[in-house]
Amino acid sequence: MRDLSGVFKAYDIRGIVGEQLDSDLVRNTGAAFARLVGGSAIVIGHDMRASSPDLAGAFADGVLTEGVDVIMIGLASTDLLYYASGSLDLPGAMFTASHNPAEYNGIKLCRAGASPVGQDTGLTDIQREVEADTPPSVGRTPGTLETRDLLAGYVGYLHELVDLTSSRPLKIAVDAGNGMGGHTVPAVFEGLPIEVVPMYFELDGTFPNHEANPLDPKNLVDLQAKVREIGADAGIAFDGDADRCFLVDEVGEPVPPSAITALVAARELGKEPGATVIHNLITSKAVPEIVAEHGGKPVRTRVGHSFIKAEMARTGAIFGGEHSAHYYFRDFWRADTGMLAALHMLAALGEQDGPLSELTSAYTRYAASGEINSTVGDQAGRMAAVKDAFAGRDGVHVDELDGLTVELPSGGWFNIRPSNTEPLLRLNVEAADAAAVAALCDEVLGIVRA
What we know:
7-stranded mixed beta sheet, 14 helices, 23% strand
């Protein structure tokens, strides 16, 4: 029996095309997914990678053999696929490897209404069936395939959620990284009082200019330079499947995702006072502070979209944000959409006369380290050593909701978490200023790397 544990991840399926992913595996995955979700039809979209159309077609073949219809929406960002799943109330499959290099591809799966499929919600069952080479169901009439273009519907729905028609004129540079933002941005911004200066809008899954991963600072350099060169009001960068957005201000400084989370949360709470907002435990502590100050109820959760979405469903939360620039909206089927977050930020900027740096400064209260990775041979042992070093101190609070979080009486805190796939510990630190962050980083890393 084939071992696919290296391909079936916690939240999706991902691997090197030709080595880990091929048409047969994908076809069998489509059939297993159809058996899992049942229903009348499954909607399928794909990104701009060279392998994506053929893999999407193989998946569709597998679905059709199970007697389930297929709606192909063609080129799509991941949040466009979520829009399709939500608006059509159908399960969906998105072919993308997001920000991974060109040789990779993958599948993100969701049930009707864009509800995620992860290891605990069906992905393990699919893996088991594919590993066992489960044969197709017998005696079923094959499903039918149709194609639909849902881009206009997606654009219209976003415009219903955020009205930018009364914004002051803005000039923004947008770096699509040769990813799917090059497909969706022109449609979304057409007709708005916003001048878009495009960068790398050509759809090219070889990523000839830089990786489509704006979380890595080196991939923001071109955008920062362009913003300063043209005197833009802001810059926006999207990752490969355009479900995450990153902003830089008018002087090219990155806007922390926690500040975006806090600002968007305040806007959403303005529409629904008293609502719940979800934040993961690595976002700045400014986020729950600002949510509470705006009359909302902050709820802290583990890192990862399945935990965010589950908590949003449980609490009825209006919005959720993560440090990794994933933003989730109740009005978008609790799915993550970088485009909607970008529209909120531009609307906030366009409603006042000040620059973006001034607008976001009110939502940035503390200094942060960003994520620091350490390769270790004994994750559990090193984490235990960190816990032992801090737990007995006066005024220190420790919790283990996700990894180890330590809150200090000074107001600073850190979280250290093991990677699920690599021998790494991931450290995030926040404190009152850069010097305090550096000191706390040195202390924790001295234990981790001893």
